[in-house]
Specification:
heterodimer; A: 68 residues; 0% strand; B: 136 residues; alpha+beta; 6 helices; disordered C terminus
């Protein structure tokens, strides 16, 4: 159980740092595929991340014009 | 936002591909089970990104498995010509789309199974690949 939590946290960290680069995707893929016994937890973490990212709002641009 | 979301989709796609190559079914089953959620998260119905095209490709299971995926009610909206951006991993599919023109009906004539969700299309082809394109 503790092991699952460690893996889940490690994977969550990996997802936070995930970029579109090949290395990054391969690293995360490798982790998921190597831990198929924890597939539910890892997939759940991925879905949570997707939901969180969707809720992210871009900050409003700062208006710096001296005329305003 | 897409910059943060698309890598997650690439990961899903990559996991499905590797799982398939290794004949592992865990992740492919999970993706197939949650496909509607994933589609909704990657190509949201509303928001700034709705009007941008987020064509998405995934390799998950077989077309037979995927055919049961379109659980949302089909809209009554008539099919119209698409404007789409195709941004795909698989050049073969790009070739197909380029060669068939921009009408959905043409795509169906090429034996592609199609679901139309609210403002998205999911096309399933014989290569176990589906893609989602926004339509106007």
């Amino acid at each position: 159980m503790e092991d699952t939590e460690v893996i889940r946290k490690e994977f969550a960290q990996l997802l936070r740092e995930l970029t579109s680069s090949k290395d990054s995707i391969q690293k995360a893929t490798k982790m998921m595929v190597e831990h198929t016994d924890h597939s539910e937890e890892l997939f759940g973490t991925l879905m949570k991340r997707l939901k969180k990212v969707l809720k992210y709002q871009m900050p409003a641009p700062r208006i710096t014009s001296p005329f305003l | 936002m897409a910059k943060r979301r698309l890598p997650l989709f690439y990961l899903l796609d990559s996991v499905c591909q590797v799982s398939k190559a290794k004949s592992q079914k865990e992740y492919r089953e999970l993706v197939a089970k949650h496909l509607n959620d994933i589609v909704g998260l990657i190509v949201p119905d509303e928001g700034d990104s709705r009007d941008k095209a987020y064509p998405v490709v995934a390799k998950v299971g077989t077309p037979t498995q995927l055919r049961g995926v379109g659980t949302r009610p089909l809209p009554s909206q008539r099919h119209r010509c698409l404007t789409y951006f195709v941004f795909i991993f698989n050049p073969f599919i790009f070739l197909i789309l380029s060669s068939i023109g921009k009408k959905i009906v043409d795509i169906t004539n090429h034996g592609t199974v199609m679901y139309q969700q609210t403002k998205r299309l999911i096309l399933l082809d014989s290569l176990n690949i589906f893609l989602i394109v926004n339509i106007n």
